[in-house]
Write a structure and sequence with these properties.
InterPro entries: Arc_rbn_hlx_hlx, RHH_5, Ribbon_hlx_hlx. With about 80 residues, the protein is mostly helical. Helix content is about 55%, strand content about 0%.
Length: about 80
Amino acid sequence: MADLSGKLAKSTRTSAPKQKVSETFTTATEAPTRTTVYLPAGLAKRLKHAAIEEERSVSSILAELAEGWLGKGRN
């Protein structure tokens, strides 16, 4: 975690995700919907750090995880 803090402190560019939230969805008819998700503080912090490291949005990560979970026959 200290290594990540060092990277963030030394970063000179703004961290913008490679993919916009709207690009996460596969068709124009699938407009993004705002959803509130409650996560333990530590998990939320780790998720944000992982998103920064992967240059992705938290939304795109959560959408990918939800699609995978739903694809396991839970729809």
